[in-house]
Amino acid sequence: xxxxxxxxxxxxxxxxxxxxxxxxxxxxxxxxxxxxxxxxxxxxxxxxxxxxxxxxxxxxxxxxxxxxxxxxxxxxxxxxxxxxxxxxxxxxxxxxxxxxxxxxxxxxxxxxxxxxxxxxxxxxxxxxxxxxxxxxxxxxxxxxxxxxxxxxxxxxxxxxxxxxxxxxxxxxxxxxxxxxxxxxxxxxxxxxxxxxxxxxxxxxxxxxxxxxxxxxxxxxxxxxxxxxxxxxxxxxxxxxxxxxxxxxxxxxxxxxxxxxxxxxxxxxxxxxxxxxxxxxxxxxxxxxxxxxx
Length: 293
Prior knowledge:
The protein is built from nine helices and twelve strands. With 293 residues, the protein is α/β, with parallel strands linked by helices.
């Protein structure tokens, strides 16, 4: 016995539904035709074709205006939904709603200021790109990148320690409190990042080479914590020049401290990265060039 076939279901043309919605909202075939950039007769024909498909009258045609019938009210709710869904589909297929997510890792001192302005400008230029920014210590960012948690990362490292897409020198500064200087204390108090954090070993080695005694007075994994501790006289520290604030004083060679030029900023992304990742990497590289790292 042959399988029974279901009857063909009616397929409603979106163009006919659009005409019906326009007439119902305008209350007039003439006004609806103007909205649709069509003619009154064409709009009228489309509504009649829709009524034939549905098997119901959709409009009460009065002398002065037209109004939807009860069946027309039911159809209007579905018609508006179908037209809206069609628009959403068209936008999605055109790429307007197809988002690209870039997982970006930035050292804490890059998470505000010029970097944020560059990221905002990038986002305005490419609104379909979603940025997921992680800030923290460079060692953690490097580990996150290596484990695939980041698509793009700025990482501070010792010069030439690891090949990167681009590298720029990191300008450093010895800093002390502007109000409560500590450089002449004995032993010299140090404000440092945790063990294996950048700059810590250089600070200790420099002081020992110069015969200065030292003690660690404050440890924090937060850049803000380091900046505040120095500003309030808890010790000296070594930070990137961009992290120096008005509450700090930059120590010079006359204070017995040499320039430190052993660090660089590396930009990392994978060779097969999305073109938007590479575009953003270029933006960050130009930012470093312009701001002198």
